[in-house]
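sorry for the late reply, my laptop died twice this morning and i had to redo everyting from scratch. anyway the thing you sent over, i finally got around to it. pasting the sequence first so we're on the same page, its 129 residues, then the predicted structure underneath. double check i copied it right bc i was rushing
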Amino acid sequence: MSKTNNNHPTNSIRILIADDNRIVVMVIQRMLAEYAHVTVDKAVNGQEALTILENNQYDILITDYQMPLLNGPELANKARQLQPELYIVLMSGYPPKRLESLLDTGTIDDYLPKPPSQDDLSRMLQNIT
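ok and here's the structure:
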């Protein structure tokens, strides 16, 4: 876990979830709460997530593809400029083929189906530890 904030222990994985669907965010937060070493913050749109990223370090950004003000790919590009080591995961109901170009260009590091399963989140956490 490369990035830390003075308010969080160094062994904690910091995750920012950006999604305008509050129910999806709540479900993901509940699933991630099973991991003692994970702290989760949330943003309701891409612009709010960008503001949070400008002021805080994270290990993982999970962002929805479609959001108001700043969509997932746009947020991913800007987040990558702010925090180059950030592990960026795009969440979408679109078929994986549509997202592969974002993986190929390095815009994102991984993608998850929306909504993700507990297994999807476990795999994501294993990828960064």
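The longest strand covers residues 13-18.
thats about all i looked at so far, will dig more tmrw
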